Amino acid sequence: VQLVESGGGLVQAGGSLRLSCVASGRAYNTDIMAWFRQAPGEERYSVARIDWKGKPLYYRDSVEGRFTISRDNAKNTVYLQMDNLKPEDTAVYYCNKLPLSATTIWGQGTQVTVSS
Question: Looking at CB atoms within 10 Å, which of 18, 77, 85, 93 has the fewest?
Answer without folding.
Answer: 18
